Amino acid sequence: MTTDGALARLIRSSADRTAAAETEVCDLCAAPVPDEHAHLFDTGQDEVRCVCRPCSVLFAGTGAGDGQYRLVPRRRLRLPKVDTGVLGVPVGLVFFVPRADGTVTAEGPSPAGAMRWEVEATAWQELAGMCPQLATVEPEVEALLVNTVHGLDHHWIVPVDDCYRMVAVVRREWRGLSGGGRVWPAVERFFEDLTERS
Q: Distance between CA 124 and CA 105 in Å, rounded?
């Protein structure tokens, strides 16, 4: 055995382990999943889980798991301007998630993750009366995503996993007390990508 051969095998082995560590897997069965994969919302843990195709069908389509998992839809719908002032959340980058129990939460990104507030259910109903598309938002798994920062005017119905992706962008790019120069261009790119994917 030559030293060169052993070194080559070590490098290949290390590369294989790195690739394996970076491969995303199903949160339910640990099978590898492709970059574009389904998500389930875990109502018991209040979080989104990456899943393979068979698990998405088994747990969301057949009622397995006692209804704990809900399939996150893929709908992305840009809305005309929505006057969210009635909801009482003075934040320019925020998403609103109606819950199965009739409550509504508002969540906004911060350097530490998502901040959460309760929204008056009657205020949400009033807004849905002014914007009928909001009545079609699926509880837990879809959200109204709003970005009015720096004069922008984005109002979307999106899968809730898109919202968590946006929170991750802000958390990753935020620098210092004010966010620095990278965070807002990154948020703008996120919304450009949202437009392309819709």
A: 10
